[in-house]
Amino acid sequence: MTAVLFETLRRRRVPDKRRDSLGTLGIAAAVIVGGVAVIALCAPWVTPADPAVVDFSNTYRPSGAGALLGTDGSGRDILSRLIDGARTSLLGPTLVVLISAALGTALALTAAMSGGWVDRGLSRLFDVGFAFPGLLLAILAVSVLSPGFTTAVLALSVSYIPFVARIVRSVAIGELTLPYVTALVTLGQSRWRIATRHLLRAVLPTALAQSTICFGYALVDLAALSYLGLGVQPPDSDWGLMVAEGQRGLIQGYWEEALFAGAALVVIVTCVSLLGDRIADRVSLNGERR
Predict the structure, then answer these.
(1) What single-letter DSSP state applies at residue 228?
(2) What span, in angstroms and rounded, lies between the C-alpha atoms of 186 and 287?
(3) What is the DSSP string of 205-219?
(4) CATH class of residue range 47-289
(5) What are the ABC transmembrane type-1 domain coordinates in residue numbering (predicted)?
(6) How many angstroms separate the CA atoms of 27 and 15, rounded?
(7) How confident is the model over 26-66, as pLDDT tens digits?
(8) What is the residue extent of each domain of the chain?
(9) Which of 2, 27, 39, 68 is the most exposed place for a label (fewest CB within 10 A)?
(10) Buried b vs exposed e over 57-70: b needs ≥16 C-beta within 10 Å?
């Protein structure tokens, strides 16, 4: 019995570093995403050339000293457009996950704390949200309103709320069964004070993990909207828009624009998805330890 107790205390005192870290792949993914984010923030100062300058005498120039990745069908520097396009390509998903996480968490806590018909009504509303794919809802909103970055971001934000709210609600309901909540109620604290001061802190890691995973999906959806001409509009730079514009070059054998923009999307989505999985694993492990 003493040996078992000693081993339990030792494990609590010396946590498993492999479980507490993101792992090599997770750290590498975080470094890549962070590096691209820094480049996007510094885009106006690090682009080799003006990404919007059109020069029809310099179209489809091959990679070289004057244009490291070549030029597109309008003579614009591809590397400069990739760097400049990183701003909208990363800003859009960031806004989507921030809006959906804030509203989804608020609705989830409201449902969990209220219970009864409020919880049932919000849960059915979340189910209805799952019935409509985010991309389809965004296409409908953009068609009814007007094509553009803002409309696409707002439409996707609404469609992503159920993805955050559903999982946060389940965590919140489980948290409400813990003894400390009963103790706080016994001490006279209101349920909404408990929700804002204690329950919110408990569900934030789960909301963060889910939002990180949703970031990759939002990035793909926004790129698809730009590809269809419903998101970012020319002459602005965007990776999805660059893939669409690069199709004309593919027919003529100039693959650089579409390939590099597509590769940027694949790399960032892969890294963010991997990072989200690592964060979700840590959240689940911490939940088991509790």
Answers:
(1) T
(2) 25
(3) HHHHHHHHHHHHHHH
(4) mainly alpha
(5) 86-276
(6) 19
(7) 888 889 999 999 999 998 898 888 888 888 888 888 877 67
(8) 47-289
(9) 2
(10) ebbbbeeeeebebb
